[in-house]
Structure formats: C-alpha cells, structure tokens
Amino acid sequence: MKGRAPQFALFGLLATVFGMLAGAVPAVLRLEENLGLGSLFLMRGPREAPAEVVVVGLDKLSSDAFGLPNEPAKWPRTLHAELVERLAAAGAAVIGFDVLFDDPAEPAGDLRFGEALSQAGNVVLVAFLKKTAVGASQDRQIVLTAEKLIPPVAPLAAGALAVAPFTLPVVPVRVSQFWTFKASAGNLATFPTTVFQAWMLRQPGEWFTDLRAVCPALEGSWPITPGEVLAGRQVGSFLREARSCLTTDPVAVARLDAAWRQPQQPAVLRSLLELYAGADTRYLNYYGPARSVRTIPYVQALRGTGDDLAGKIVLVGFSDEFQPEQKDGFYSVYSDHTGLDISGVEVAATAIANMVDGTAIKPLSFPAELFVIGFWGLLVGGFCRVLTPPAAIAFSLFAVPMYGAWAWWVFTAMNIWLPLFVPLFVQLPVALLLGLLAQYLQTRRQRERVMLALGSYLPKRALDRLMENLGDLQANAELLHGTCMATDAEQYTRLAETLAPEELAALMNAYYAAMFAEVEKCGGVVTDVVGDSMMAIWAMSKPDSKTRARACVGALAVAAAVERFNAVPGRPRLPTRIGLHTGPIRLGNIGGAGHMEFRAVGDIVNTASRIESLNKPLGTRILVSGETLAETEGLLTRELGTFLLAGKSTPLVIHELLDTKADRDGLARDWHARFAAALSAFRAARWQVAADAFDSLHREQPDDGPARFYAQLCARYLASGPDSFERGAVRMPGK
User: Fold this and answer.
1) Under DSSP, is residue 571 helix (H, G, I), strand (E, B) or coil?
2) What is the rounded CA–CA span in Å between residue 401 and residue 405?
3) Are 133 and 113 in contact (CB under 8 A)?
4) Helix (H, G, I), strand (E, B), or coil: what is residue 249?
C-alpha cells in the first residue's frame, strides 16, 4: 500500500474536486434537493407531527354543510368571525389564517370579522406581497424590483395581532423550503415565523429575558414582558429587531447559544435562535404525505365537537381530503407516491411544527459539506484506483448502501441532510470510471514496457509473431501447440568457478547473443534463460509441420552458431547439447506472492529438457522426438531408439538431427542401414545379434556415441540381464 499511497491520494483528490465542482452547478443542486433529499424522506418514512399544531381545513365537506359554494373566498366573513370566537373560547394559543382578505367584502361582515379578531387578540393574517419596479441596472438589462406588503382590508388589519406574507421560494419541481424572513420586503417576518413567534410569546420561561439581556436595543426601549409585546401588537417589529441584533452581533449569538442549547432546555429555544440568527430560508421536514398534520374540517371546528385546542396553534386554510377539490396544491416529495399534493396551509403547518419540535432539516454547513465530499471522494477515488477492476466494482456496489445507510441514520436521528446525489451519482461513478481507465492505461503501459524490455532480449520479428498468435488465441485461454527447444552448455560449472563474475557475465552474454539471433531468424522466441540453459518455443494455434521444421532448422543453426562461438581464439569453449519436443503448451503469466513471469508451461517443456539430457549418455548434440519430426521434410535424421526418460511414463522415439552437410564426405547409406538393423535386433531383445552389430559399427566409427552406447548396453544385458529394458524402450535413470 505504501507504493500506492500517492495514487490513492491523487485519485481521491480528483474525486473530491469533481464532487465540489459538480455540487456548485445549479442543475446538480436541484437534483440533489429533488432526488437526494427526496430519497431520504422516502427511506425514513412518515413520522408523527407535534400535537401543538392543528389545521382547520376549508373543504368541500364544510361548504356542503353550510350550503355554500366550494369557493371559500366567497364565504361570508361573519362565518370566519364565528370560527375565531369558537377557537378563542376553546383556548387556542395562536390562530393563523392562510387566506387572503385584501379585497373588501360586505362591510358588515368585515366589521364583524375585525371585531372578532380584536377581541381574540391572537390572530395572524396572511398578507399579499406585490412586486414593484424601483429602477434598472446601469446597462438597463435588469429591472430592479422591491416587494411591498399589501395588508388585508382595514377592519381586519386593525383587529389582527399581526399580518405577514406567506410566499414560497420559486422552485421548478417541488416545495422543499420556506421563507423565514423576506429581505426584499424590508426583512419582514413571514407567516410561519410570525405565528411561531406569537406562540412563543405565550410560553413560559426565561428566554425573553435572555434575549433582552444580550440585545441592547431590546433592553433599552422594548417592553419587559412578552405579554406587553402581544398587547401592543408588536410581534412583527419585535422579530425584525431580534433578527437585526443576532445577525450582526456574534457575541450575542454565542451567549444565547450557550444558554439555549443546554440539554435541559426545550427544543423550541434552539429553533428560536436558528430563526433569529439563521438563513432567510429553511428546509421543510415533512411528517408524511398530505394531511399528516392533524386536520379537522372547518364545519367541525365551528360547531365545537369536542376537539382539544387549548394552547394549540390553529391554522385555517384550504385543505381538502379529496384532491380534485383542492384549491391550492403544492408538489411535495410524497406526491408521486400518494397522488396527493400538499396544501399551502399544510406547508405553513409543517414549517411551524418543525420549529415547535426542533426538527427542521439542517443542511450541512459549507465546511462540513467540504469534509463529507472530501472524505468520500478520498475514499472512493483512492480505492477505485488501487483496487483491481473486479474489486473496485465490488467496492462500489458495497459503497452505495453503506453511504446510503449512513445518510439515512444521520437524517433520521439528527435531521441532518447529507448529500446523496453528488456522492453516489457523481463522485462514485466518476471515481470508478477514472480508476478503471487508470488501471487500463497502467496495464497498457506495463505491457508496452514489457514488450520494450523483451525487445531488448528477443528479436522483434519473433516477438511480433508470438504476440500475433496469442492475440488470435485469447478465446482458447492461450493454449497453443508448439515445439520447445532446451539447451545446456557443458563446462559451465567449471568456468563459473574459475572466471571472475564480470568475465563470466561477458562470456555468457556473447554466448546467448549468438544463439538468440539464430532463434529469431528461424521464428522462435526465447522464453527462459537460467545460468547456462536456454528455453525457446515455436508456437502456433494448431499443429503445423512447417513450424516444427523451422524449429529443427533453428536447432541446427544454434548448434552452428555455438561452433563459431567456440572457434574464437582465446575464448573458453561452451559445447552445447540441444533437445526438441512437440505438443500442447500454455503460454502466460506464472508466479505468485508478488512475483510473476511470462513462461511456457506444459509437459513438453520438461520433456524437451529430458531429451536434451539424453545427449550426454548418447554422445550426441541434437536430439529430437518423433512427434517433432512428424510430417516434416528436408531434414537429415537418424533414429536412435525408444527411450523411457526419467520421470516419464510414456516412451518416446528419439532421433538424432544431423546437418545435411555432414554427409558430403560419404557417410555411407549402408552404415545407416546397418545401424537401423542393429537397433531392430535390440528392440526384439536379440541381445547377442545386436551386440555384434553395434560392436562392428563402433569399431568402424569410434566417435559415434549412439553405437558405443548400444554396444555397452548390449554387453551389460548379456552379462546381467536386461535390467533397463521395458516395453521395447530403454529406461534412463536420473535426469
């Protein structure tokens, strides 16, 4: 891992930077809100809304009961006056009307409603915000606007505890946030904020005293009790003053934070502090689909059917149980799953309920988001780079539920919104793609370096030919049919003892250079060199007599090159023995524990080495198996018999490969025929006949190793019995 640490860090940084850049794109932010936050809501599921908030729905059930049209704007305002009186009598702490009353109705009805509002003293009305042009930019490309509050009709505005706007942030898909204050309208507190503040002013505790103590403006000129703020109908002004103080005085915020965030303090105090000192918008923590906040029909609330509303926040607005009758609806995270949109008054109720129970959604702060994106980017980017492709894919598949479970737990337990879309659908796929691409490029570079390195030792033509054949055989798992050549130099051990290491290295480099060149010329590839031994292969996708013939020609060429090498005056001689065998072979990577080598693997490799070793007792230089010579043409050979080589269970017919030039001085065909006849007698176990024949041949050609070998072997069999003769083959001891 130590060597991979820089790559881990680099790709982790790339994934981090890409995630941060993607997270700054508005379209991605919208996807994060719509898909990421929406998924968290669906994973968590519905939850119970606080009992302190109740919705009174203006619905079709009520309009039918009153015999009125299902258009609540046309209902008589005297009916609303009766509702306010009924709710006040029931002990409602705060009443909020999410209904616009900016158009005059019947004067008597407005006066009656206004009187009911004044007597109740706890009703907050919604007001309309109207945009007006106030100028243009210097290039006149942008029209500058401001928002002006249009209050309800005079009798209602005068009787209400407060009036406040209720507009929602413009979103292209679903409602996820609400305004707490409208800076464009002079930092006006919105309807949910005003209702919550009015309710808080009726709650016991020392919070009001704490707030006045840290804000000089409130301490000097404001009423000293919450009741005086309510009596003076100064809720809106109080909110603006408190917000002005706590958004400009960090010390005051720190003092309240230390006091109000104590474990024993109610959650509403934390909500109040976040309201004063926080952003202008806040995310909604939905309790579930439409009507998850307790909702009672308007007619039921008016007739007082026993609902406990004492101390409650009661919001009145359009909310129908049947979606076709819904007068205003907003697309929420649950709309697709239930088919029901949420009403405006339910949005307000959700916002207020979040402040009551202290469960408003908390997006990560910028530093915290950087940490999450950075940590996740480092994790997925690093591991997708250093792991193998299958492991990287498996890690990615595991990382998705792992991160999703973490985000779900944080969201459910602490109402903290961790980003989902960017980590899972931006960073993770990009990290995996970059990691796989880097692995591919690294493998390609390594292959090129291997090819370059092999090119330093192997002839380019042979290397290209080999790679071409391998490329055609990928579907066959690199199983080839080939001829393997094994060589071994005599006197190497003695030379290694007598020569200095640098002298031995120079000698062996020259020795192998002579042999490698001949292997390349004949289309072979050297696959292994150990000490004084070389292994070369001629590989094809299927058996081919021409390839086997080239291997035999290559063996003759190597032997000739060694003779020229040994003929250099003053150079130590390295007589070389050669063995060839043919059969199936697998060419590929072999090794383990961090060390791999590209080698030929198969029985023919060991068998070729055993055939090469047979040269020593036979006194020959080049031995070839019958499988190698099958169907070849133009080669001069002499069959030397059938042998059961050391460690092998199948006998092999062995031939000596002769240089065609060796017969130019008249090596008589009769002599070869006599050798074949003697070998036939040997195979027939006619030991005396074979012994006489081989003795005669050996006397005529004292330097012929095979004749000497069989003459001695027959003499031994005659004296001691055929102790090494089995199934017509000579069993060879040792290697």
Assistant:
1) coil
2) 6
3) no
4) coil
Distance between CA atoms of 325 and 59, rounded to whole angstroms?
Answer: 8
Cα 360 to Cα 365: distance, rounded to the nearest angstrom: 14
Give the Å distances, CA to CA, from 656 to 188, 405, 727: 107, 74, 21
DSSP tag of 416: E
CA separation for the pair 62, 530 (Å, rounded): 99
Cα→Cα distances 167→195, 348, 702, Å: 15, 10, 116
pLDDT in tens, 629-686: 998 888 999 999 999 998 888 899 999 998 876 554 445 578 888 999 999 999 999 9
CA–CA separation, 143 and 141 (whole Å): 7
Cα-Cα-Cα-Cα torsion 282, 284, 285, 286, nearest 10 degrees, comes to: 170
Query: What pairs with residue 658 in β-bridges?
Result: 636
The pair phi, psi for residue 671, each rounded to 5°, is -65, -40
The structure tokens 């590989």 sit at: 539
Distance, CA of 21 to CA of 3 (rounded, Å): 29
Residue type, 133: A
Do 80 and 97 touch, CB atoms closer than 8 A?
yes
Give the pairing of strands 576-592 and 622-625: parallel
Are 276 and 244 in contact by the 8 Å Cβ rule? The answer is no
CA dihedral 466, 472, 478, 484 (to 10 degrees): -40
Among 591, 598, 486, 476, CA closest to 540 = 476
Classify each residue of 614-630 as buried b or exposed e, where b means 16 or more C-beta atoms within 10 Å of its C-beta. Answer: bbebbebbbbbbebbbe
DSSP lists the bridge partners of residue 488 as: 533, 577
pLDDT of residue 377: 82
CB-based contact 203:268 (threshold 8 Å): yes
Does residue 98 contact residue 191 with C-beta atoms inside 8 Å? yes
Write out the two tokens for 403. Answer: 């991160």
Residues 44 and 53 sit within 8 Å (Cβ to Cβ) = no
CA 690 to CA 677: how far, in whole Å? Answer: 8
Q: How far apart are the first and last CA of the chain?
A: 44
Interatomic CA distance for residues 329 and 346, integer angstroms: 10
Structure tokens at 686: 């006619």
Residue 107 has a CB neighbour count (10 Å cut-off) of 10
Digit-coded pLDDT (tens) for 690-719:
999 999 999 989 999 999 999 999 999 999
What are the tens digits of pLDDT across the range 90-113?
999 999 999 999 888 888 999 999
d(CA 618, CA 283): 93
- Give the whole-angstrom CA distance, residue 545 versus residue 543: 7
CB burial readout 453-473, b (16+ within 10 A) else e: ebeeebbeebbebbeebbeeb
* Interatomic CA distance for residues 597 and 192, integer angstroms: 73
pTM: 0.64
